[in-house]
Design goal:
295 residues, nine-stranded mixed β-sheet, four-stranded antiparallel β-sheet
Length: 295
């Protein structure tokens, strides 16, 4: 968020951005709410998301005053397979919100995990942080482990570092490693920075592999580590602030550059944790930099 004395803060910011910062909804959702006439300033309905404001004073949503934005909060959630990353489902299927503890604040998912994909799902109170983490331009790395059936070589996986086009869709650089193989079954680790819809599954299926299990093991510097399935915990505020400063002050790496840099440094604690097998222990507590979780 801009400093109070910055030119952007003095001149005003788009109302959708401010409401996203306040945790009302994502920018896109706010724009839809404006179109529905649900947002007003001093009793006057807002007609355009291009409206500029220096604060949320006098702004209401569905007639209720909007509170000033609190500091952003970020949570890790170990999403089990079989849950939708959605608030509700017309077909009545269970969603992550059906399973999350009731004492949590209003949370928005950072990206999505498919119904049958499990592992780390970040949740935040801050729409602007959500957008920062999701944008391909910021280059935040996502890590996955996939259990596959079929024939694939390390050499074939390494070709993905140059990106690949499938049915007219271009996927960016993917750093993929064959972890281990038992017969025709194997575990493959994949690291990417775009996160297009069903990207990992589509790329692996394009290689002729059947995906029987897919786990997201890390998002940026935040690992799944030993967080039990269904558990949630909060990233410490100090670590979140440090990460946002780093996120705002660097350019996204070129294809493969980030991975080469990590190898020169010998990898970090988060990278090593993200390569670990999926957690099995029940009731295990997550390590620093996270606060105690709940089931």
């Amino acid at each position: 968020m801009p400093a109070k004395d910055s030119p952007e803060a003095r001149e005003g910011q788009r109302i959708a951005k401010l409401l996203a910062r306040a945790g009302i909804a994502s920018r896109r959702q706010v724009e839809r709410m404006i179109g529905e006439g649900r947002i007003a300033i001093g009793g006057t309905v807002v007609e355009t998301p291009a409206t500029l404001l220096t604060s949320l004073h006098g702004v209401t949503v569905d007639g209720k005053p909007v509170k000033p934005p609190a500091p952003a909060r970020l949570f890790r959630y170990h999403k089990p397979a079989g849950l939708l990353t959605a608030e509700r489902d017309p077909k009545g299927r269970p969603t992550i919100y059906d399973r999350l503890p009731r004492d949590l604040p209003r949370l928005m998912p950072v990206g999505r995990l498919d119904l049958n994909t499990e592992g780390l799902l970040l949740l935040t109170t801050d729409g602007e942080l959500k957008r920062q983490l999701e944008l391909p331009a910021t280059g935040v790395e996502r890590s996955y482990r996939a259990r596959v059936f079929g024939e694939v070589s390390q050499a074939r996986l390494e070709e993905l570092i140059h990106g690949i086009e499938i049915e007219g869709i271009r996927y960016g650089a993917i750093n993929a490693d064959l972890e281990r193989r038992t017969g025709r079954n194997a575990w493959v680790e994949m690291r990417l920075r775009e996160g297009k819809n069903r990207e990992v599954r589509r790329v692996l299926e394009h290689l002729g592999l059947q995906v029987s299990r897919l786990i997201r093991t890390a998002y940026g510097p935040f690992p799944l580590a030993d967080l039990p399935a269904g558990a949630v915990d909060e990233v410490r505020q100090h670590d979140l602030v440090a990460f946002r400063k780093e996120l705002g002050g660097k350019s996204p790496p070129r294809n493969g550059e980030g991975d080469r840099d990590a190898k020169r440094r010998g990898g970090g604690e988060f990278r090593r944790q993200s390569q670990s097998p999926p957690p099995r222990a029940k009731g295990a507590r997550s390590p620093s930099p996270f606060r105690g979780g709940s089931r």
